[in-house]
Amino acid sequence: MKVVTHQLRCIDCGARIAGSDVNSIFRCPICNGLYDVIYPWSATQGEPSAPVAENRPNASALRWLWQERRTSTLPVDQSGVWRFRDLLPIVDDASVVTLREGNTPLYDLPRAAKSIGLDWVLAKHQGMNPTGSFKDTGMTAALSVAQQRGFEWVACASTGNTSAAMAAYAARAGMRSIVFIPEGKIAWGKLSQSMDYGALTIQLKTDFDGCVRVLTELVTRFPIMLLNSVNPYRLEGQKTPAFELAEQLEWQVPEHIIVPGGNLANGSALAKGFSEMHHLGLIHRIPKISIIQAEGANPLYLTLAENGGEELIPVKANTRATAIRIGNPASWRKALRALRSTGGWCEQVSEQEIALAKAQIGAEGIGCEPASAVTFAGLKKFVAQGKIGREERVVLVLTGHTLKDSNYTIDYHRGELFTAEEDAAIAPADQVLHSALRKPPIVLEPETDTVFRVLETQMKPVPA
Ligand code: F0G
C-alpha cells in the first residue's frame, strides 16, 4: 500500500489534490492559484480550534533526531535539507538527489550592526551552498520529486542561480536539463555554471518574464518537470533554512528575518518553515519576515503602495542586482501572505544603497552578491523609520555568494559601476562611506622603493 504523505492545497481557492495529480504548470485548474504542500499534521494549521492532527511529530523527539543525524555518514543525513526530512516527507530516501546542501553558516556582522546603532545583526549565508546560492535547498527537493516521478528532463527560466542549481542537481541525478535565461542580463559566474554542469542553455532575447512565458508553453507540450519556484516542492526545501537557523540559535527566534524579493517565493518558504515549527511547538513565536526589492524591480512594493495588495502591478524591471530583475513575479500572493501572517514589511532600495550595503558586507569578510545586499540596505531603512530598535535581533538572509557576480564588485571598487548622474545622487555621508570602502587595485612598477612608498601612505592605522 502506498502511504499518502502529502497533498497540494491551492492558496487561493483551497482545493486539495494528490501530489501526483498536479498539472505541468503547478497551477490550480479551478482558479489558477499556486499550491502549498500540506501534510496530515499541518492540515489543521491556521485553525486554532481544530483538533490536533494525528501523527503530529513530537518537538523534542525531532530536535534530538536532527542533532543525532549530524554525526551520521549517510548522504541524506549529511544534507542540511534532508536532515529535517520528517517535516518534508515528499520522497523516499532512495530518490533523494543531494550535494550535501544546507548546513550554511550564521555569521555576526558587528561592524554593520554598529554602523546603524543595532546590537545584533546576523547573516544566514545561503551563498555557502554547493552551487553558491540558496536555490540548492529548493532544488534538491524538487529534483528528487522529479526523479521519483520518472522524469528524464527538467527545465527552468532563470536570472542565473536557479539554472545553476538545477543544472547541477540534474547532472547528479543523470537527468537532462533545459535553461532559459535572459540574454545579456545574467552574471557570468552563473552562466558558466549551467554550461559546466551540462545544461542545454538557451539565452532568449527577452527578460526573465519573457523566459517564463516560453517555458510555460514548453512544459505544457512535453513531459518536462518545471523547476521554477511555482513548483511547491522547491519551497519545501527552501523552508529548511528556517529550521537550521532556529537550531543554530538554540531555538531562540530572532525578531526579524529580512530576505531579498525577486520572483517572491523565498520569503514565503521561510514563513512556512517558521509557521510549521510554531505549529509543532518547536518555537514559541514567529519572526517578522520582511522582503526588500530593488527600486527598479519593485512590483510588490508598488502594489502595496498603490492598491494595498489587491492586484499585482507588474513593472518593466531594471536593476544591476540581476538575480532579482523581475517585473511580474509569480509568487507575489504567497509573498503577501508571508508579510501579513508574520507582520513583516516590504521596502525598496536604490542601486546606490545596494552597492554600499554590499561593500559593507564584503568588508566584514563575508561578501555576497548584489541581490543579497538589498537585505542590509533595507534594514537601514527600517531602522531609520523607527521600525526596528537597538535590542531587536535581525537575521539577513544572504542568498548568493560574492563570486557569482565578480564583475559587479570589480566595477564598484574601480568606481565604474555608476553613471555620473547616479554618483552625484549619493548623499554626502554615504559618499564618505563609499570612499573608505572602495579598494581598487593599485598598479605599480615592480620597484621596492615605489611599492614601499605607496604602502606607507596606505598603511595608516585604521580608526577604531
Ligand atoms: N537572491 C538571489 C541571489 C536570487 O538568485 C534570487 C532569485 C532571489 C534573491 C529572489 O528570490 O525569487 O524567491 O524572491 N533568483 C531566481 C533565479 C529568480 O532564477 O535564480 P525569490
Tag the structure with descriptive keywords.
four-stranded parallel β-sheet, six-stranded mixed β-sheet, 18 helices, binds ligand F0G, alpha/beta, 464 residues
Write up what this structure looks like:
The strands form three sheets. This protein has a six-stranded mixed beta sheet with strand order 4-5-13-10-11-12, with helices on both faces. 39% of the residues lie in helices and 13% in strands. The chain is of the alpha/beta class and 464 residues long. Residues 133, 135, 158-162, 229, 260-266, 323-324, 369, 371-372, 399-400 line the site of ligand F0G.
What's the quick description here?
With 464 residues, this protein is α/β, with parallel strands linked by helices. It is built from 18 helices and 13 strands. The strands form three sheets. A six-stranded mixed beta sheet has the order 4-5-13-10-11-12, with helices on both faces. The chain has a four-stranded parallel beta sheet with strand order 8-7-6-9, with helices on both faces. A three-stranded antiparallel beta sheet has the order 2-1-3.
Give the mean pLDDT.
95
Number of strands: 13
Bound molecules: ligand F0G
Number of helices: 18
List the helices and strands and how they pair.
Layout: E1 7-10, E2 16-18, E3 35-38, H1 59-69, H2 75-78, E4 106-108, H3 110-115, E5 121-125, H4 135-148, E6 153-157, H5 161-173, E7 176-182, H6 188-196, E8 200-204, H7 208-221, E9 224-226, H8 232-238, H9 240-248, E10 256-260, H10 266-279, E11 288-294, H11 299-307, H12 332-342, E12 346-349, H13 351-362, H14 370-384, E13 394-398, H15 406-413, H16 420-424, H17 428-437, H18 448-458
Helix pairs in contact: 4-5, 4-8, 5-6, 8-10, 9-10, 10-12, 13-14
The chain binds ligand F0G.
